[in-house]
Amino acid sequence: MSDKNAAIVEISQTANKFTSSIVLQYDNKYIDVKSILGLFTTLVNTNAYELHVHGPDADDAKTAMKEVFAKHNLSVAIVD
């Protein structure tokens, strides 16, 4: 499995631990991070991504998502 594939699987698995909505935005596209297929078509290079997290466990989800993106050297900004 490539590094990119490993990152995608881990990002999706991490997102699926939370009930909050977790959406990745880049350019004018919005991708549900819980969708592995969506991530495969999105996470292509080291673009600037924005993450929108809303829901009852949003704070925990934001922390976990920041950690998993950083682990895979992906730049992400959490939008409040």
From TrEMBL:
Stretches assigned to the HPr domain: 10-70
InterPro entries: HPr-like, HPr-like_sf
Pfam families documented for this protein: PTS-HPr
Cleavable signal peptide: none
Domain of life assignment: Bacteria
Descriptive protein name: HPr family phosphocarrier protein
Organism annotation: Marinicrinis lubricantis
